[in-house]
C-alpha cells in the first residue's frame, strides 16, 4: 500500500493548491500541510515553493512526482492482477464527469456499483466537459463522462444516455405558452447560461449557429458554472430564460417552481458519452463501471 503522504503530495502537485487537495481528499488543510512537511523532512528537500498564495514544485518535487505517479500505477496494476486471479474487479477507479452528469445522472447508479464491486475504490471529479477531457488526457482520470458536440481526436467516445436541453423560466400564472415561442422573442429575454467550456453551452451555441445567431449577439444576464445556480436564479428573476437539461428539472417542475417554454426552430438534443484515451484499453474497474452504467440505461 503506497504511503498516504504520497497521495497528499500528488494531489497538491496536481492542483498546486493545498486547499483544493484538502477538498479532494476530504481532510483538513492543516493535515495536508503536516503530511507535506513530514515528506520534506524525510527527504531533506523542499518539495514546494510558496510565494503568497501561489504554489509551485521545486526540482525535488518534480522528481518525486514522477516517482510517486509510477508507484501509484504499479500498485494499481498489482491490485488488479491479484484480483484478476479470482475474476474480480478491484483497485482504484478515478471517474470524472461534467456537472449535469455529476449532479443528476451518475449518483443514482454509484451505490449499486459499489455494492456489486466493493473492492473498487471510487472517486468522482466534477468539472465542465472541457476540464474532464483535459484531465483524461493528462492521466488524472481513468474514465470520463461528458456532454456536448465537440470531439477530441485523441479521445475515444462511447454513448451512455440521450438527453435534451430545454428553455425554462419561473412559473407564470398563465403557464407555458400555448404555442412555441418564436426564437427571436425568446432571445430578447435576459438569458442565464452555463459557462464557456461546458457541454451545455456548446450544444446551444451549435444550434444557434445553424440559425445564423452568434452567442455574442445574445442578451446574457449571467453565466453560471452549474445548473443548480441557474435554476435558483430563474426562480428569483421572472423575466429571465435559461437553458438546462430536462433531467435537471424533475423536482422544480413537480413543485411548480419552473416551467418549460417550447421555442420555435430550436431543438437541443444531445448525448451523454463516456470517454477515455484513444487506443488505450480501459482498466478492469473502468471497463466494469462503463458496462454497468450502460446496462442501467439500456445501452
Overview of the molecule:
- The longest helix is centred in the first third of the chain and has 26 residues, at 59-84.
- Strands 3, 4, 5, 6, 7, 8, 9, 10 and 11 form a nine-stranded mixed sheet that branches. A two-stranded antiparallel sheet has the order 1-2.
- The protein is built from twelve helices and eleven strands.
- The chain is 43% helix and 24% strand.
- With 299 residues, the chain is an alpha/beta fold.
- The protein is globular, with a radius of gyration of 22 Å.
- Helix 1 crosses helix 2.
- It comes from Hymenobacter sublimis.
- Residues 1-58 form the HTH lysR-type domain.
- Keywords: DNA-binding, Transcription, Transcription regulation.
- Belongs to the LysR transcriptional regulatory family.
- This is LysR substrate-binding domain-containing protein.
Number of strands: 11
Quote the distance from N terminus to C terminus.
Answer: 36 Å
N-to-C SSE series? Answer: HHHEEHEHHEHEEHEHEHEHEEH
Oligomer: single chain
Low-confidence stretches: none
| Portion in helices | 40-55%
What's the number of helices?
12
Amino acid at each position: 500500500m503506497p504511503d498516504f503522504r504520497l497521495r497528499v503530495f500528488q494531489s497538491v502537485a496536481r492542483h498546486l493548491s493545498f486547499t483544493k487537495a484538502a477538498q479532494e481528499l476530504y481532510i483538513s488543510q492543516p493535515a495536508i500541510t503536516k503530511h507535506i512537511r513530514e515528506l520534506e523532512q524525510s527527504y531533506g528537500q523542499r518539495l514546494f515553493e510558496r510565494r503568497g498564495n501561489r504554489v509551485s514544485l521545486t526540482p525535488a518535487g518534480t522528481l518525486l512526482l514522477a516517482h510517486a505517479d509510477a508507484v501509484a500505477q504499479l500498485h494499481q496494476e498489482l491490485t488488479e492482477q491479484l484480483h484478476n486471479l479470482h475474476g474480480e474487479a478491484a483497485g482504484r477507479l478515478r471517474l470524472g464527469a461534467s456537472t449535469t452528469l455529476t449532479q443528476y445522472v451518475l449518483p443514482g447508479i454509484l451505490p449499486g456499483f459499489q455494492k456489486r464491486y466493493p473492492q473498487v475504490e471510487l472517486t468522482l471529479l466534477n468539472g465542465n466537459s472541457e476540464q474532464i477531457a483535459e484531465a483524461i488526457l493528462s492521466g488524472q482520470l481513468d474514465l470520463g463522462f461528458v456532454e456536448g458536440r465537440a470531439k477530441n481526436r485523441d479521445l475515444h467516445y462511447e454513448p451512455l444516455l440521450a438527453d435534451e436541453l430545454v428553455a425554462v423560466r419561473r412559473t407564470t400564472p398563465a403557464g407555458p405558452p400555448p404555442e412555441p415561442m418564436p426564437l427571436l422573442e425568446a432571445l430578447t429575454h435576459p438569458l442565464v447560461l452555463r459557462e464557456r467550456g461546458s457541454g451545455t453551452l456548446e450544444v446551444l451555441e451549435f444550434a444557434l449557429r445553424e440559425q445564423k445567431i452568434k452567442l455574442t449577439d445574445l442578451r446574457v444576464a449571467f453565466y453560471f458554472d452549474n445548473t443548480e445556480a441557474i435554476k435558483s436564479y430563474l426562480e428569483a428573476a421572472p423575466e429571465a430564460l435559461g437553458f438546462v437539461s430536462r433531467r435537471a428539472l424533475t423536482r422544480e417542475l413537480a413543485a411548480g417552481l419552473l416551467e418549460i417554454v417550447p421555442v420555435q426552430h430550436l431543438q437541443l438534443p444531445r448525448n451523454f458519452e463516456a470517454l477515455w484515451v484513444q487506443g488505450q484499453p480501459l482498466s478492469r474497474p473502468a471497463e466494469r463501471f462503463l458496462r454497468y452504467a450502460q446496462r442501467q440505461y439500456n445501452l
